[in-house]
Predict the structure of Polyphosphate kinase 2 family protein.
Amino acid sequence: MNDIAARAKRIAKFIEPLRVEPGRKVRLPKDFDPRYKADLMTKKDGVELLRTGIGLLAEYQRRLAAEDTRGVLLCLQALDAGGKDGTIRHVMSGVNPQGVQVSGFKVPSAEELDHDYLWRYAKRLPGRGMIGIFNRSHYEEVLVVRVHPENLARQKLPAEAKGKGVWQRRYREINDWERHLTGNGFTVVKVFLNLSKEEQRRRFLRRIDVPERNWKFSAADVRERRSWDDYQKAFSEMLSHTSTPWAPWYVVPADRKWFARICAGAILAHTLIELDPQYPDVGEDARHELALSKKELEQETPEAGHD
Ligand code: ATP
Ligand code: MG
């Protein structure tokens, strides 16, 4: 087996326990342990695996861009202090910034509320050849909007779109949208950084105690924390209904930052490996032109002073 195939296999095996099988009923927090770290992996093994993942990502991103036919969308969801920013920073550290587009989603603007709820996400989708990362995503529409129904009230929906069954309807619409994207060349992969309540408490305290981290803290985060159980329920329902064969959810244990980063890198690398983008074959005519250009360049007299 060649080197890439061996690494690909190792990655596929590693992420398998994190994937939510379509149709599985998920109950958080009991179904996924935020402190899980595969086979008691040490941080040192982990760093090596992260390097493997990042190396593969860089190579596959070059291919994806050269092929210019398909795109990849990675959606990242987490509760506050879940580590989305750090994960993006580490996972994308080896790739060409021109091939990646990161979009964050905050409270919707008046203009955004004036459209259907998927509009603002559709506007930020990656183009062909690109990797798009959503730092928060259309899943906020079944998370924060569900936990705090006043958000739904602001969306100016007609009665039939906000009444009974609204969440089931949204799950279906989101699944359909992702299927449409997949069918047209855009692979969607979803990562939930699963943080424990205690680890969130510690991270908030650190943000308060360490002056350089103060800017990251907001009293609103502690207010959101009061809805912890409602969020766990909303996440459980979301995972149960929107992990599909074409766009699976992965639940990544997030209490150890280093482990979460390895997982996210491995999941993205796995997605690209499965896509297997290819450098285009330029064809006979283009090869002929290359040969002519080469001849012309070689016939020039080399300038002195260049080694
Ligand atoms: P940071 O890590 O910097 O805190 P963040 O993603 O938490 O990043 P914030 O500006 O703190 O950014 O928070 C954005 C807020 O916007 C979150 O509380 C999120 O739940 C909220 N939000 C996102 N999408 C929606 C939506 N569709 N409706 C209502 N609120 C939303
Ligand atoms: Mg925040």
In short: The chain has a mean pLDDT of 95. The first strand starts at residue 71 and ends at 78. The first helix runs from residue 3 to 15.
